[in-house]
Design a protein that fits this description.
α4 (about 165-180) links the parallel β8 (about 155-160) and β9 (about 185-190). Among the domains are: about 25-120, OB fold (Dihydrolipoamide Acetyltransferase, E2P) (Beta Barrel); about 145-285, Response regulator (Rossmann fold, 3-Layer(aba) Sandwich), CATH 3.40.50; about 450-530, no CATH class. The strands form four sheets. A five-stranded mixed β-barrel has the order 3-4-5-7-6. A five-stranded parallel sheet has the order 9-8-10-11-12, with helices on both faces. It has a four-stranded antiparallel sheet with strand order 13-14-15-16, with no helix packed on it. The chain is α/β, with parallel strands linked by helices and about 525 residues long. The two termini are about 45 Å apart. The protein has helices at about 25-40, 80-85, 125-140, 165-180, 195-210, 235-245, 260-265, 275-280, 285-320, 325-360, 365-405, 410-455, 460-465; strands at about 10, 15, 45-50, 65-70, 75-80, 95-105, 110-120, 155-160, 185-190, 215-220, 250-255, 270, 470, 490-495, 495-505, 505-510.
Length: about 525
């Protein structure tokens, strides 16, 4: 191994150090060695600290944060596959106990813990987390009393979300059977452990889309326990699922003194699972007694109503006259009118005959001729006025024609034609000049654009001895790294194209490619070269 040409200074007194016999490591080798050392000495650890620098899950599904205390900090990572298995999801500022394995991240030369399990650090941390989560959900309005719905009075189907093996389901079934036998659909879930919250949330959402008999009310039940045992019912996903449920939900988690977040969001909170069953269905005997009492009250009320209506009808009947008396007066009026009808007809006929006779006496041929004569006189007068008006119009038109003919004499017309022809000639000259000017301007713009196109076109570069490499799909190749070994390429020169095949970094002519023909080329001095 070669020694360095210049001495190395290892202290402040300026003394030179001799070359060391220690082996050299590359950066990657040293990083891997450190990683093996850390993983061998700290394979699986439990670290207590406060979560910091957590900004939510990365787009890849992984989560990155740090665990810190008063004197130190360590990076932590939760892989995407382990996120769903965490009993407690990380939150900024939460004190937790993280379990996992130590490793290093060579890219940043630091060490980190790969978290596989996360749990709160004691009861105080749980209560703090619970209070923060409660305030957050309350601020969103999920606990408002206005959004809670009334429970059905007599649900035909009751859905129960609980453990199928515990005493809770037996108490609920027994109480429902005693009070009012109804159909109970049980959705079995775990009510304790890391996955309990997700399973209960899935059950509440599943009842909303259940293909069988859909429940009219849902009971979420579990027996009593510590805050750790009931922690699954504080899950944020479960709270949001209960809030979004289209079916009313009764929460019966723990004893009467136990409170979870699902109690705040549920439409009704029962102190015990047995109390939830009592709230869901009434007592059948009490319902029958109430129904019988209301039926008796209805019969009594109906009988009283009929009697009152009968009495009122009697009073009104007494005030009405007899049926024959009601028709006596109209019958008498009819007889009187019938008697007057015959005389009235005779008198009407006589009056009509008199009017006819008087009118006929006033009519004669002379009377008929007078209106006709008057109409003829009015027609003759109108015809005369019309003839005079037509003559006047013809006379005026004839005078206008004479005046117009005198005004436009042949000489005047000829002079006017010559003036118009001269004006037309001037317009034609102006048109030709304008067209020549426009064409010249367009030709100048065309020549400038053609020169600019020739200057920037790659064809001018090809004429200076360069070549353009294309693939089989006519796409240009921009870098040598983009070409695969054995790939068919096409080289475009100024005078044609040649097909080649890439072989080990050196293109070779393809068998089917024609032999290129060398031609003389001239360099455009005005254009210059690319180098």
């Amino acid at each position: 191994m070669s020694q360095p040409d210049t001495p190395l200074l290892d202290n402040d007194d300026g003394a030179s150090a001799r070359g060391s016999n220690a082996p050299e490591f590359s950066v990657s080798e040293l990083a891997r060695s450190v990683r093996r050392t850390v993983e061998d000495n700290f394979g699986y650890v439990r670290v207590r600290g406060e979560i910091g620098s957590f900004r939510g899950r990365h787009s890849s599904g992984h989560a990155y944060f740090s665990l810190k205390d008063a004197d130190a900090s360590i990076d932590a990572v939760v892989w995407r596959g382990a996120w769903s298995k965490l009993g407690v999801k990380p939150e900024e500022g939460m004190e937790v106990i993280a379990s996992g394995r130590m490793t290093t991240f060579p890219k940043k030369s630091n060490y980190q813990i790969v978290v596989e399990q996360l749990e709160p650090a004691g009861l105080g941390a749980l209560m703090k987390l619970l209070e923060e989560r409660r305030q957050k959900l309350a601020a969103e309005g999920l606990f408002d009393e206005a959004r809670k719905r009334p429970l059905p009075s007599l649900p035909p189907v009751i859905g129960v979300v609980t453990s199928p093996t515990g005493a809770v389901i037996r108490d609920i079934l027994h109480r429902v059977a005693d009070r009012f036998p109804s159909r109970v659909v049980v959705w079995p879930v775990r009510v304790q452990g890391e996955t309990s919250g997700a399973e209960v949330a899935a059950a509440v959402e599943g009842f909303a889309t259940y293909g069988g008999p859909r429940p009219d009310v849902i009971i979420v039940a579990r027996g009593g326990g510590s805050i750790e045992d009931l922690w699954g019912f504080n899950d944020e996903v479960l709270v949001r699922a209960v809030a979004a449920s289209p079916i009313p939900v009764i929460s019966a988690v723990g004893h009467e003194t136990d409170w979870t977040l699902i109690d705040h969001v549920a439409d009704h909170r029962a102190p015990t699972p047995t109390g939830a069953a009592e709230r869901a269905v009434p007592v059948r005997a009490e319902c029958l007694a109430t129904l019988g009492d209301r039926a008796r009250r209805l019969d009594i009320a109906l009988a009283g109503l009929v009697e009152r209506r009968r009495s009122a009808l009697r009073l009104m009947a007494r005030a009405l006259p007899a049926g024959g008396a009601v028709l006596e007066a109209p019958r008498q009026r009819l007889d009187m009118v019938s008697d007057r009808l015959a005389g009235a007809l005779v008198r009407s006929a006589a009056i009509a005959r008199q009017r006819y006779t008087a009118t006929a006496a006033r009519l004669s041929p002379q009377t008929a001729r007078y209106p006709v004569a008057r109409a003829g006189e009015r027609l003759a007068a109108t015809s005369g006025r019309l003839s005079r008006a037509v003559g006047a119009q013809l006379t005026a038109a004839r005078g206008d024609a004479v005046r117009l003919a005198g005004r436009h004499a042949p000489a005047l017309v000829a002079r006017r034609v010559r003036d118009e022809q001269a004006a037309l000639s001037r317009l034609l000259v102006r048109r030709d000049r304008a067209m020549e000017t426009g064409v010249a301007a367009a030709r100048g713009r065309w020549n400038a654009a053609q020169k600019l196109l020739s200057a920037v076109s790659y064809a001018a570069v090809l004429k200076r001895g360069f070549a353009l490499v294309r693939r089989g799909d006519n796409a240009p190749v921009r870098a040598a790294a983009d070409v695969a070994t054995g790939e068919a390429l096409e080289l475009e020169f100024a005078d044609g194209r040649v097909n080649v095949v890439e072989a080990g970094g050196r293109p070779q002519l393809a068998k089917s490619a024609p032999k290129p023909v060398r031609r003389s080329r001239k360099v455009d001095d005005a254009q210059g070269t690319l180098l």
